[in-house]
Amino acid sequence: MGKVRVLMLMLPLLFLFSTSQANLTGELEFKPEKEIINKYEKVCFYLVNNSDKVVYLPSSAPWAVFEDEDFDKIVFSPIAAQQIIKLQPDQERKWCWDLKDFEGEIVPSGDYSIRLTVFRNGERVFLTSKVKVKPGVAEATKKDDK
Questions:
Q1: Which CATH number fits domain 3-145: 2.30.110.10, 2.60.40.1930, 3.90.1700.10, 2.30.30.140?
Q2: Are 109 and 11 spatial neighbours (Cβ–Cβ below 8 Å)?
Q3: Which of 7, 34, 65, 91 could disulfide-link to 75, CB 3.0 to 4.6 Å?
Q4: What contacts 10, CB < 8 A, 6 or more positions away?
């Protein structure tokens, strides 16, 4: 994928993911199935609506992966249908990331933040989960050889 095309895909995402995160502890649960992932695995994460209100998702995959906690360096965000999805109370939704970036390359080992956008009571809310990608076997061997 060309750099111009990647930039064109990222600009709307930067707007979508550009406000501060709200604290809805207990009402909305957003977390990965595993916090530490081996390289070449995929990480799945889910949102559970524990509240008594409907939550709206702005697309079928309203999440993005960042390599920093300030959300300045976006690594990946899936192409998704731009449709409003209702998440009723006590419902959950699951997504998976194959650890690839916009160029289709496996990301380096390290810490990543997954940020999810939801709308609750008419307000945009960001939820964040963190994952750690461990080095793969070949990568760990190279480090040991140095």
A1: 2.60.40.1930
A2: no
A3: 65
A4: 74, 77, 102
Distance CA 120, CA 102 (A): 29
pLDDT (tens digit per residue) in 75-114? 999 999 889 999 999 999 999 999 999 999 999 999 999 9
Dist. CA 129–CA 115, nearest whole Å: 7
The C-alpha atoms of residue 116 and residue 6 are separated, in whole angstroms, by: 20
Q: In terms of DSSP bridges, do strands 28-32 and 43-49 run parallel, antiparallel, or are they unpaired?
A: antiparallel
**Amino acid identity at 113:** S
Query: In degrees, to the nearest 5, what angle opens at C-alpha 114 toward C-alphas 60 and 84?
Result: 20
- Asked if pLDDT for residue 2 goes beyond 70, the answer is no
- Computed from CA positions of residues 83, 11, 1, 102, in that sequence, does the dihedral angle turn out positive or negative? negative
- Sequence-separated contacts (24+) of 138-143 with Cβ below 8 Å: 139/39, 139/109
Which tens digits make up the pLDDT trace of 12-39? 444 444 433 444 557 999 999 999 999 9
Locate the domains of the chain by residue range.
Answer: 3-145
